[in-house]
Amino acid sequence: MALNLIEYLEKSAKRFPDKLAVSDEKTELTFSELRNYAMSVASYIIDAVGTEKKPVAVEVDRCTQSVVMFLAVLYSGNFYVPIDNKMPEDRVNLILSDINPILCLNIKEKDFFNGFNVETACYEKIKNYEINSKALSLARENTIDMDCCYTMYTSGSTGVPKGVVISHRMVMDFADFLSNTFDINENDILANQAPFYFDCSVKCIYQMLRNGCTMYIMRPKYFMFPIKAIEFFNEKNITTLLWATSGLNILSSSGVFEKIKPETINKVFFSGETLYAKDYLLWKEACHEGSLFVNLYGPTEVTVDCTYHVIDRKFKKEDVIPIGKACGNMNVFLLNEKNESVRENEIGEICARGTGVSYGYYNNPEKTGEVFVQNPFQSNYRDIIYRTGDLGKYNEYGEIVYVSRKDNQIKHMGSRIELGEIEAAAVTMDNVDEAVVFYDDKDKKIVLVCKTSMDKSFIMDCLKDKLPKYMLPNEIFIFDKLPHNRNGKIDRPKIKADYYETNS
Q1: How far, in Å, CA of 43 to CA of 41, rounded?
Q2: 413-502 sits in which CATH class?
Q3: Of 115, 139, 373, 399, which residue has the fewest beta carbons closer than 10 angstroms?
Q4: Closest CA to 200 of 486, 465, 467
């Protein structure tokens, strides 16, 4: 059993030294090159700041350099903190002041971190630094699976980002689960869609390292011209997509499958947002018969994903695909407000325990203590669960079905309503590509915002067939497109802010 993630790279570099490991279309690195560059940069880190199991901030872009720097930090015995180089300056300052990194790694000289009051080093200047084999060996010997691998910052409810602390073991258990359960191996070729500051990317990076897969980093242009994305899949013989649901939906909703189909893809993993059957069916029809489709669920705090559902039965277009059952070495269950297990069709909060559960939030014991809590079913020893803030229910198969966020529940006209249910009803309609539902607390209105070619009256008529009267939206707004954040998800805060600004 591997003791740290560096062993993944060491083994793949030994098995496949000359095989392409990662490419961003400008730079291609074999496994031996990836290893050597990582060791060079790691040697610089050790000489500059030491091996202290401390945070090193890494500039993130869609390039091979970011991946090399992640691995270099691990080789050095420290842990990395991905920082998006297009992130607003104020947010970068918040993260840097919270994490207090011992070093920041720029991709290029006089680049991203140089505008901040931190110690920096430039990848291009240190990538050929003399390898210090003795220091690297010592750092590796002192790195165990319990040590932090990365800290990834997510949005906080107060506007202050929270750093989720993830260990080597957490990543390795999840990577082993994916590989062993779904037979991901050296023959698979991955197309990376998720930015490296988004935890969905962890799946691609560590499947590549663990199994000796090739990973192609896709450029943003492919999502502006979907036909180019499919052509790219076919040209590179892509077999496996470990993507955010929103990215997959961009392609399927564009109508591109009517013109061209993916010829080599045989494994498609959805994650990050609710998966509706109508979107899955478009991919199923486009891919070869017998292709594997898996719906994954999990917040950053559980090391990417904690449940999965292999889609192996028929669903109607209006159905929501279940998030299924727990991943390996995890337990996932639903609790009601009394911390009791829920019954079939009773809604409860999704809670997770197991090796994937994060250590908590960096430098934030108060927020950690709010959601990383003692298992209510175990009082005799420390057994921490993570309360996700998401609501779900069990279906007739015993599978978990995602319902909505806990804070997406409202009381309207005397009835308790899950806004996610209204959203699901809208999105499952033909010709509605995306939808957001929120509650206007001031005017006591349910507001539906959607991307569609249909008019408001037609949408309302369709919703009347799907929802009880008290759940129907009071206002409907139609747009050609909805804003998305840098993770590719619908930018819900912006939609709400624009609404309130317009209606103030």
Answers
A1: 5
A2: alpha beta
A3: 115
A4: 486
- Burial grade of 312 (CB within 10 A; 0-12, 13-18, 19 or more): exposed
Rounded distance between C-alpha atoms, residue 471 and residue 418, angstroms: 9
Hey, what CATH class is 329-404 in?
mainly beta
Q: Tens of pLDDT along 135-145?
A: 999 999 999 99
Task: Find the DSSP H helices in 127-220.
Answer: 133-141, 168-182, 201-211
User: For 383-414, b where at least 16 C-beta lie within 10 A, e where not — what string?
Assistant: ebbbbbbbbbbbeeeebbbbbbebebbbeeee
Question: What's the pLDDT tens digit per position in 311-345?
Answer: 999 999 889 999 999 999 999 999 999 999 998 77
State the Cα–Cα distance between residues 140 and 142, nearest whole angstrom: 5
User: In which residue are the tokens 């978990």 written?
Assistant: 400
Q: By CB neighbour count within 10 A (0-12 exposed, 13-18 middle, 19+ buried), where does 91 fall?
A: middle
Q: Token pair of 202, please?
A: 């962890």
Amino acid, single-letter form, for residue 168: H
At residue 429, the pLDDT reads 87
Q: CA–CA separation, 204 vs 217, rounded Å?
A: 10
127-to-37, 130, 206, 403 alpha-carbon distances in Å: 6, 9, 21, 47
Residues of the chain with CATH 3.30.300.30: 413-502
The tens digit of pLDDT for each residue in 115-129 reads 788 899 999 999 999
Task: Delimit the CATH 2.30.38.10 region(s) of the chain.
Answer: 329-404
pTM of the model: 0.87
d(Cα 168, Cα 85) in Å, to the nearest integer?
Answer: 25
